[in-house]
Amino acid sequence: VTHFYSNQILLLLLMLSVLPSSAALPLSPGNIGNLFGTSESDGKILQRSKRGWMWNQFFLLEEYTGNDHQYVGKLHSNMDKNDGNVKYVLTGDGAGTLFLIDEKSGDIHATKRLDREEKAMYTLHAKVLDRNTNAELEPDTEFNIKIHDINDNAPKFAKEIYFASVPEMSEVGTSVVTVTATDADDQTYGNSAKLVYSILQGQPYFSVDSENGTIKTALPGMDRELKENYQVVIQAKDMAGQMGGLSGTTTVSITLSDVNDSPPRFANHSFRVTAVESTDIGGAIGRIKADDPDVGHNAEMEYSIVGGHDIFNIITDQTTQEGVIIIKKALDYESKRDYEFRVEVKNTYLDARFIHGLQFKDYATVKVTVEDVDEPPVFTRNPYIIEVHEDTAAGSFVGVVSARDPDADNKPVKYSIDRHTDLERLFNIDSVNGTITTLKALDREMSKWHNISVVATEINNPRQTTRVPVFIKVLDVNDNAPEFAMSYDTFVCENVKAGQLIQTISAVDTDEPLVGHKFVFSISATNPNFTIVDREDNTANILTRRGGFSRREMSMYFLPVVISDNDYPIQSSTSTLIVRVCACDSRGNMQSCNPEVLPFSDGLTTGALVAILLCVIILLMIVVLFAALRRQRKKEPLIISKEDVRDNVVSYNDEGGGEEDTQAFDIGTLRNPEVMDANKLRRDIIPEMLFPFRRTSPIKDNTDVRDFINGRLQENDSDPTAPPYDSLATYAYEGSGSLAESLSSLESAATEGDQDYDYLSNWGPQFKKLAEMYIGKSPDRET
Questions:
Q1: What is the dihedral of CA 11, 12, 14, 16, to 10 degrees?
Q2: Distance between start and end Cα atoms, the chain
Q3: Does the record's keyword annotation contain Transmembrane (predicted)?
Q4: Long-range contacts at 12-17 (CB < 8 A, ≥ 24 apart)
C-alpha cells in the first residue's frame, strides 16, 4: 500500500474527517502508515478498500519564491522496509522536469515556480519497483497535484478606451455604457477575482455601478450646446476592493448626442434685398438665414412667406439651411418698385419633450427693392401667325408686327428679318413700322408654311434685341391642272369586242380646294376606237368603241384625255394614254404585244449574210497582221562598220533635217545679227516668252566668230534675267547653201592629228564635255 504525506496541515484534517469514530487512531507515524492499509485491533483484521481510503491529491502554492526546490509531499509503500531495496518512480504531467521524486525516500519536489493561470492541476502516476529486479511491487497509482491560487493578477479591461454617447438633457440614472474587467485569478478561491468598480474622473456628471460597471448619468440638464464631450476614468479593483488588492483602469469618452431642444432664431428680424427687373422667373434674388444651435436633422429648418405672395417665393437650401428668395412672376420697375412681406422659419422635426413653453418658430420682415434696367423691346404677340395667298405678286402686303420699348423712355425700335430663316429672300420688312411684304411670288405647292424670325432692335442701344417667330401660311389658289395619278400600261386585245373595259384611270391635283377635288374626264367625241365613261368618283373607264384591232395595221394608239377640276378658276390638262394592241388568248390574257414581222420575199438569206460577215472579219485580221509584221522589221544601222570614217559622229535624239536642210543653222546670221528675226523662238524647248527679247548691238563684219560667241556667252552668264536652263544645239551638215559651208571634219583636208584643240578648254564650263572629247584624243597626250 502506497501512502501519501502532504506538507499541508489541511491534508491531515481532511484525512481524519473521513474516518469513522470507531476507527479513530492515535496520530503517529506508524499509524499513518497503517491508515491506508490493514490494521490489527482485538485480534481482527480491519479491511479497507485502499482505493476508497487513499488520499490522492497534493496542494501547492503558485509562484513559490524560495531558492531551493519546493517540497510537495512524500510517497511511502508498506513494501518499503527502509532497507534500500525499494525504488520509487514518477511519471505523468511534468514528471522529471517540473516534479522530481527521491527514488529512495519517495519525497516529491517542484523544480521551478508554477503559475495556476497557466495550469491549475497536474496528474501523475507513482510506481514502486524492486531496485534489484525492477519488478513492480505494487500496482500503478494515480494522484493529482493542485496549484493553490494567490492574488497575482490585476483586473484588465477589454479596451483601453471606450466610446459612448447619451442624449443631452437625459434624466439622472440614464444608462450610458457598461464596462467590464476580467481577473485571471481563481474566482472560486478567496477574493482574488472579486472586483469592485469605482469612478476616478467624471464626477459629478456620471456615476458607475460598483458591481457590474454600468456608467449612468448623475447630473440633470446636461446641455450639449454648453459641453459636448466628457472623459470618464473607471477603476476595477480585486480583493473586493480591500486594501492591498490589485486594480486596473480604463477611459470612457462620452459624447452628448443632440436633441431638438433649441428653436431657430433670426439674428436680425429685418432684411433688405435688391433685385433687377430683368431677373428671370425662378431666379434667386437673395438669401436669409436663421440660427439653430442644434445639429443634424434637429437643425433642419423650413422657410415660408406668411400668407403667400404673388411675385415672390422662398425655398430652403438643404445644404446651408438658408432661405432662398426666388421670383414667381416677372418684375417691372415701371409698374412697382418696392415690396414687403414676412417670412416664417420653423424646425422640420420637433421633439415633444421640449415643445412645451417654447415657440419653435421665428419671424422676419423682408423688403425688396426693384432696380431699373434697359430692357429689350417687347412684341405685342408671340408668335405671329399670318395667312397669305399663293401667287401673290412681289411687293404684296403680308402682315404687320409691332414691338415697343418697355422702359419709361420708350425708345424707338427698328425691325429686320433674320436672313438665316429666310434664305430664299421671299419676304421683306419695313424697318420703321414692321410691315412684312413679299419679295417673290409664293407657291403653296413648293412650301405650305414659311417660318421666319423678326428681330426688333433699339435704335439707341443695338445690343437690346428681341426675336419673335412669324409663321406665314400660304393659302391655296387653284393654279395647277389635274393630271394622271400614275403612268398606265394599257393594252387592247386584237379580238376585243366593242364596249370592252380596257383601263380605269384616276387623276391627282396638287391644289387643295376647301370642298375637295372633283375631276371631269373627257376625250374627243369623234374618236372611232375608244370612248370614256366618267364614274363620278374622280375616276373614269376607258372602253373600246369597236372590235377587230390588228397589230399589222396599228400597233399603238395615242388617246388624249382631257382632265378638268371644279375649282375657280377651272384648270384643265390633256394627258395622253398610250394603248398597245396585243395578241390575247380566249380569256383576254395578253400574250404578245410586239408588232408582227413579215418575212422578206426577196433578198439575201440568213446564211448568205453570215458568210459575208465572216469574210469581212477575216480580211480585217489579215490587215492587222500585216501591219504588225511591218512594225517588227529592224531598221538599218547608221554605222555599218567599225572602220567607218564617221565613227566620231555623235548621234542625238533630235535629228536634223538632212544635208539639204539649209534652215537648221545659218552662219550668215552670226555675221549679220541685223537680219535676226526678233520673234524667232528656240526649237529645242517649249516656247515661253518669260522675258522680253533684248537686241544687242551689231558687230563688225570682220569680227571673229570665236570672239562673237565668247562675248555672247559672257553676256548671258552675267545676265540675271537669263533662263536657268542649258540649250542643246545640234550642228550637222549645213548644206551647200551655208556661208560657212560644212562644219563637219569629214571633208577637212587636215587630219585629226594636225589639229590643236587646247583652246576648247578656255571656252568655259559649257564646252567642257566637247574639250574632253577632243583634247583627250590628241596623240601627244596619249603618249
A1: 160
A2: 148
A3: yes
A4: 14/55, 15/55
Measured between alpha carbons, how far is 680 from 668 in angstroms, rounded to an integer? 16
Which of 720 and 623 is assigned the larger pLDDT? 623
Examine the pLDDT at 152 and tell me if it is beyond 80: no
User: Over 90: is that where the pLDDT of 230 sits?
Assistant: yes
Task: Report pLDDT for 31.
Answer: 33
Most confident by average pLDDT, 259-263, 288-292, 442-446, 771-775: 288-292
Reduced to 3 DSSP states, what percent helix, strand and coil does the chain have, rounded to the nearest 5? 15, 35, 55
Residue 571 pLDDT exceeds 90? no
More confident position, 684 or 422:
422
C-alpha pair distances (Å), 464 with each of 420, 461, 591, 703: 19, 6, 78, 89
CA-to-CA dists, residue 396 to 221, 375, 432, 659, angstroms: 89, 33, 17, 86
DSSP of 43-102:
TEEE---HHHH---EEEEESS---SSPEEEEEEEETT--SSS-EEEEEEETTBTTTEEE-
3-state secondary structure at position 367: strand
Q: For residues 256 and 227, what is the distance between their CA atoms, to the nearest angstrom?
A: 8
Rounded-to-integer distance, Cα 154 and Cα 161, Å: 18
Per DSSP, the three-state class of 30 is helix
Distance CA 322, CA 337 (A): 25
**Which residue has cell 503517529?**
28
Whether the CB-CB separation of 253 and 228 falls below 8 Å is answered with no
As a whole number of angstroms, the distance between CA 437 and CA 430 comes to: 8
In this structure, the number of other CB atoms found within 10 A of the CB of residue 346 comes to: 17
Report whether 307 contacts 366 (CB < 8 A).
no
Task: Report the C-alpha gap between 435 and 428 in whole angstroms.
Answer: 8
Task: Judge if the upstream peptide bond of residue 264 is cis by omega within 30 degrees of 0.
Answer: no
pLDDT exceeds 60 at position 532: yes
Please check whether residue 234 is in contact with residue 200, taking contact to mean a CB–CB distance below 8 angstroms. yes
CA-based Rg of the chain, rounded to a whole angstrom? 68
- CB distance 556 to 581 below 8 Å: yes
Task: Look at residue 21 in the predicted model and tell me its pLDDT.
Answer: 33
Mean pLDDT of the chain: 77
d(CA 86, CA 118): 35
